[in-house]
Design a protein that fits this description.
7 strands, about 35% strand, 4 helices, Aminopeptidase, binds coenzyme A, about 150 residues
Length: about 150
């Protein structure tokens, strides 16, 4: 069985993160976008290691009592092996420990793998943002209420 660990992003990871993002995700962040997250004090940028190899990442923000997941990506070669579930489950647990009331996120309406993953972890749709993405795709806004 593979040994899974979640660690903080370090600058040495930037090239592998950009590569995983380009090959696995349709949102295509730039190197600067990742580095800005690294510098942002409200941002949590976590790397998933599988047997010490970078297998994916998650970025979320925390502002006062709200969290927002900006992105979660698993290496194309490692998808559908429950790594996304592991990373999201651990992240939600960490967020629960930080006195957060609600976790928000947005996802393209055609991104069925991600929508299914979020539904599985208790997120529900609360709105739609029309033509949100460059390609005209609508964004589904989802949230998970953690505390009243
Ligand atoms: C979304 C993503 C992170 C899921 O990671 P993963 O490791 O492949 O997901 P898991 O193996 O843990 O699957 C968990 C659940 O997600 C859903 N899912 C994952 N891949 C799916 C697919 N190809 N089709 C439909 N549902 C899928 C299923 O509900 C699955 O549960 P199941 O295996 O019991 O059916 C991955 O597909 C990815 O990196 N996508 C590109 C980046 C992206 O769009 N991120 C979201 C940004 S908002």
């Amino acid at each position: 069985m593979k040994k899974l660990n979640i660690v903080d992003f370090i600058k040495e990871n930037i090239d592998i993160i950009c590569k995983i993002d380009k090959t696995s995700s349709c949102y295509n962040w730039t190197k600067n976008m990742f580095l800005n997250e690294f510098e942002n004090k409200n941002s949590f940028f976590k790397i998933l290691l599988s047997d010490n190899i970078v297998a994916g990442y998650i970025i979320y923000h925390i502002i006062i009592d709200e969290a927002e997941i900006l992105n979660i990506v698993i290496d194309e070669k490692l998808k559908k092996q429950k790594l996304g579930s592991f990373l999201l489950e651990r992240t939600v647990k960490d967020i629960l420990n930080k006195n957060i009331k609600t976790i928000f996120l947005e996802v393209g309406e055609n991104n069925i793998p991600a929508i299914n993953l979020y539904l599985k972890f208790g997120f529900e749709q609360y709105n739609i943002r029309k033509n949100y993405y460059k390609n005209g795709e609508n964004a589904i806004l989802m949230k998970r209420q953690v505390k009243e």
